[in-house]
Design goal:
Blueprint (H helix, E strand, L loop, with lengths): L1 E3 L13 H10 L2 E6 L4 H13 L3 E5 L11 H10 L5 E10 L7 H18 L3 E6 L2 H10 L6 E3 L6 H9 L3 E4 L10 H8 L5 E3 L21 H12 L3 H15 L6
Parallel strand pairs: 1-2, 2-3, 3-4, 4-5, 5-6, 6-7, 7-8
Helix pairs in contact: 2-3
InterPro entries: DNase_TatD-rel_CS (IPR018228), Metal_Hydrolase (IPR032466), TatD-like (IPR001130), TatD/YcfH-like (IPR015991)
GO molecular function: DNA nuclease activity; hydrolase activity, acting on ester bonds; metal ion binding
Keywords: Hydrolase, Metal-binding
């Protein structure tokens, strides 16, 4: 039983072997996989993928990199798509001040507008935050009423993690927990309450050891879970059962 709460199976890196990878995930007992979008096109394609495979679910939305392309009509279409029965979240949305592919003020505007969609549709949000934790947090705090979600591939400090947890959000741990140069993340993985932790691969990115440097695969979420178990001195099955419980508690449209 494996769960990957964040994997981009629509990514072009999987064009040649997507079906083979997905069939392999079934063989590896992948029980739940959530495929987030980065724009309107990947939102639509993610839904099509989720319609084809029982264990795959979709999120729809605009990534901060693509925020500059999100028109009012596009956001109306995102909201329309969000009513599909296999769409379980709005995401991934948020802020990225590392690349600044979209101007920061536009990132913030589109982030907040998609939070509004999530609240209207009673869906959680999947949050991308890179070198933007204070603004990410401030916008969440302003909109916290009736809002739920997860900080995907969390990369901040334990101090900032506590502030997100206080708002009721989940933290998702990904491949960098296995990197030798991981400094802040092990502390977060050790201290986050077990009922507020999720795991992911962010495939095809952030490939964990021992496959670092290669294209990621959602099946490698096992290595993320194993490292968390090592850090916390808990059994693999115990963690995976808790992850499933947390996943179903946040993404309430998933029916098992």
């Amino acid at each position: 039983m494996l769960i990957d709460t964040h994997a981009h199976l629509i990514d072009e890196k999987y064009e040649e072997n997507r079906s083979e990878i997905i069939e392999g995930l079934q063989n590896n007992r992948m029980e739940i996989l959530i495929n987030p979008a980065v724009d309107l096109d990947t939102s639509r394609k993610g839904i099509q993928l989720a319609e084809s495979w029982n264990f795959i679910f979709a999120a729809v939305g605009y990534h901060p990199h693509e925020a500059r392309h999100a028109s009012e009509e596009d956001l109306k279409e995102i909201e329309k798509l969000s009513t599909h029965p296999k769409v379980v979240a709005i995401g991934e949305i948020g802020l990225d001040y590392h690349y600044d592919f979209s101007p920061r003020e536009i990132q913030q505007e589109i982030y907040e507008k998609q939070i509004d969609i999530a609240k209207r549709q009673k869906l959680p949000i999947i949050i991308h935050s890179r070198e933007a934790h204070q603004d990410t947090f401030d916008i969440l705090e302003r909109n916290k009423e009736g809002l739920a979600g997860v900080l995907h591939s969390y990369s901040g400090s334990w101090e900032m993690a506590k502030r997100y947890l206080d708002l009721g959000f989940y933290l998702s741990i990904s491949g960098p927990i296995t990197f030798k140069n991981a400094h802040k993340l092990p502390e977060v993985a050790e201290k986050v309450p077990l009922d507020r932790i999720l795991i992911e691969t962010d495939s095809p990115y952030l490939t964990p050891a021992p496959y670092r440097g290669k294209v990621n695969n959602p099946a490698y979420v096992r290595y993320v879970a194993e490292e968390i178990c090592r850090l916390r001195n808990i059994e693999f099955e115990e963690l995976l059962l808790q992850i499933k419980e947390n996943t179903l508690a946040l993404f309430t449209k998933i029916e098992m």
